[in-house]
Amino acid sequence: MRRRTAEPYKIKSVEPLKMLNYNERKEALENAGYNTFLINSREVYIDLLTDSGTTAMSDQQWGALMVGDEAYAGSESWHHLEKAVKEIYGYKYVIPTHQGRGAENLLSQMKIKEGDFVPGNMYFTTTRAHQELNGATFVDIIIDEGHDSLLDHPFKGNVDISKLEKVIKEAGPEKIPYVCIAVTVNLAGGQPVSMKNLRDVYALCSRYGIDVMYDATRCVENAFFIQEREEGYADTAIKDILKEMFSYSDGCTMSGKKDCLVNIGGFLAMNDEELYIRGRELVVLYEGMPSYGGLSGRDMEAMALGIYESADDNYIAHRVHQVRYLGEQLIDAGIPVVKPIGGHAVFLDAREFLPHLKQEQLPAQALAAAIYLDSGVRSMERGYVSAGRNKVTGENNKPKLELVRLTIPRRVYTNNHMDVVADSIIALYEKRDQIGGLEMTYEPPTLRFFNARFKPLAKNGELMGNTASVTTHS
């Protein structure tokens, strides 16, 4: 009999939660234009919108806030952060930024020129936006299995080496400033990349003189899957897996708000001294001095500690298993989810969940809204709306994956909260034919999913065909 384990921490402080009643949730949803990003946090019961910046920091991190060195230049806290990045990830040079997007901006401006191509293992919204704004075209080189939500494959984030080499040969190595590898792949369902694949990508790119840059936001989760699934790594510590992973790259962008276990912060890291010097100059224009990059000293102290804490085997095992705990309940109930369960979220397949809705009727956006209406649980759309428009034709991109992301914040919720989420989604699935589609009433020109607004397609203006049957928690 397998012995159950508990959280590798105990609760020292609590934040009260409030459940709005059904009518209050309905009003909040309407006021937000059926966009879960626009719902106020005080109106949310369990917040699974994102794992970005929603981490519960440790007592050691909170203590570190009090010793942050707020010097404008040469802060001791900066040196602590730089030391942590070098020790855990192995890069020579580090530039702090206010968050991951700041690092993406710097990298894109320094490396990309008009007409370039950036191959990557599936797009991410802000990453692709920065690449396109600087004149590049993103090219998807993920294996085909990454676009199949129901296929159970251990490393669905892997790069298709033949696709990558084809892009290199057709575009020419001089037109590829770098290859962008996400570890893990968010929009594929939090799917990992194998060590062998990382090694093969790096070897191929080295032959052509092309840099490999990681989106390392959830690299610790990727390391866990390598430890769990890849032959030869079962007895290798997470910190050692991380060091090997990063040895197959030339640099990375990092949003510290995920696997660095803080509420704000990020960095750009690299091994190329010339690129580092250029980055030090550019960061002053957009972020701040190279020794703080838009962060306070206390933020850097907390992130330095978070980097060490995240590389703990017990921490990451619990983190992934809690996500899996929710996902397995849904699978057991017949709910269509992306398989295998990823590291940071459970992704519902909205097309399978709501087969009566066409993709143009925004099934993922509608399902995310229906979940909030049912239980006060906030999730987010990752499909037609998030994919945006083709930058050349202006036509809507139509991704194969139409998903709702249930993103689990780190060290925040218990498994009892996961039970509440599961109950809501299972109840909705039983009356899924009552969930109607949405149409967009306001579309921002860039990254539209953040601020777009919607309305129900139904003539009576209701999202759910039979609102009386919706769960009415008080």
UniProtKB/TrEMBL annotation:
<dbReference type="InterPro" id="IPR001597">
    <property type="entry name" value="ArAA_b-elim_lyase/Thr_aldolase"/>
</dbReference>
<dbReference type="InterPro" id="IPR015424">
    <property type="entry name" value="PyrdxlP-dep_Trfase"/>
</dbReference>
<feature type="modified residue" description="N6-(pyridoxal phosphate)lysine">
    <location>
        <position position="258"/>
    </location>
</feature>
<comment type="subunit">
    <text>Homotetramer.</text>
</comment>
<feature type="domain" description="Aromatic amino acid beta-eliminating lyase/threonine aldolase">
    <location>
        <begin position="47"/>
        <end position="423"/>
    </location>
</feature>
<comment type="similarity">
    <text>Belongs to the beta-eliminating lyase family.</text>
</comment>
<dbReference type="InterPro" id="IPR015422">
    <property type="entry name" value="PyrdxlP-dep_Trfase_small"/>
</dbReference>
<dbReference type="InterPro" id="IPR015421">
    <property type="entry name" value="PyrdxlP-dep_Trfase_major"/>
</dbReference>
<dbReference type="Pfam" id="PF01212">
    <property type="entry name" value="Beta_elim_lyase"/>
</dbReference>
<dbReference type="InterPro" id="IPR011166">
    <property type="entry name" value="Beta-eliminating_lyase"/>
</dbReference>
<dbReference type="InterPro" id="IPR018176">
    <property type="entry name" value="Tryptophanase_CS"/>
</dbReference>
<dbReference type="GO" id="GO:0006570">
    <property type="term" value="P:tyrosine metabolic process"/>
</dbReference>
<dbReference type="GO" id="GO:0050371">
    <property type="term" value="F:tyrosine phenol-lyase activity"/>
</dbReference>
<dbReference type="InterPro" id="IPR013441">
    <property type="entry name" value="Tyr_phenol_ly"/>
</dbReference>
<keyword id="KW-0663">Pyridoxal phosphate</keyword>
<keyword id="KW-0456">Lyase</keyword>
<protein>
    <recommendedName>
        <fullName>Tyrosine phenol-lyase</fullName>
        <ecNumber>4.1.99.2</ecNumber>
    </recommendedName>
</protein>
